[in-house]
Amino acid sequence: MYLIGQGNDTHNLEKQDSIIKLGGYRFQSKYKVIAHSDGDVVLHSISNAILGAIQLGDIGEYFSDKDIKNKNVDSRKIVDFTLRFLKKKHLKIINIDLTITCENILLMKIKKEIVKSLQNILKTKLINVKATRFEKPCNQIRCDSIVLLGK
Fold first, then answer.
1. How far apart are CA 102 and CA 135, in angstroms?
2. What is the pTM of this model?
3. 17, 46, 52, 141 - which has most CB atoms within 10 Å?
4. Cα separation of 82 and 79, whole Å?
């Protein structure tokens, strides 16, 4: 049995020196992600894809941005929460394909680092990260993901 899930997440960016996390990889940026959590759009997107594949809703149902206890929550906590569902259902990640869209942050130089971080977090080697830009200037960062799960 195989299950496919699709996820996405988008956050606004603000011009300000900060540390950004993408796929658990931390790096210095001239932009800050505006988010209730730590704003890791990659881990959020993957978590949504996993939850979708196993028909358990989305991360907003478990980690509401209206709940103060989720303020600045580490996205590793969110992805670990979704991975526990996989373990209970005796499923594993077969592969993941991601597209990160951002106009202001050039990702070409860090794509390999994001992949390494994700391989460590998700315990799978078959992860692809693509980077692209919006058609028009846009102060956002977005990640779309497809996850294939299997027994």
1. 10
2. 0.95
3. 46
4. 5
